[in-house]
Amino acid sequence: MAVRAVRGAVQLERDEAAHMDEQVSELLTAVLERNALTTDDLISIWFTATPDLHSDFPAAAARKLGIVDVPLICAQELDIEGAMPRVVRVLAHIESDRPRAEVVHVYLGAAGALRKDIAQ
User: Fold this and answer.
1) CB burial class (10 A; 0-12, 13-18, 19+) of residue 45?
2) 3-class SS at 108?
3) Mean pLDDT estimate for the chain
4) CA–CA separation, 61 vs 82, rounded Å?
5) Which residue of 41, 76, 101, 108 could cross-link 37, Cys pair, CB 3.0 to 4.6 Å?
6) Mean per-residue pLDDT for 66-95?
7) How far apart are the C-alpha atoms of 105 and 31, rounded to whole Å?
8) Burial level of 47, CB count in 10 A (0-12/13-18/19+)?
């Protein structure tokens, strides 16, 4: 089984903990479903959030989904002038037999504009 990485992002409408939980849960669920993964396939997940998000840790949503024995870490995204606001990004390391070209990266809603080259 190979180690692969899958990317994703979502733009939040507002900086509220419940909204972040809902949107990050939707993003993680889509990543798992579109790549036919279970939580046993996860190795680790990195989350980043833009500096304008303060309400909660994105990893908290993963724990609420039942991703409890996978290492998770949160970091702040670079504060670049003109960058899309209120974005949570994810980089999940997975075990998968899928060829790298068949890994489905998930960019929900307006975040699809971030990586039009790989967004599904």
Assistant:
1) buried
2) strand
3) 95
4) 27
5) 41
6) 97
7) 7
8) buried
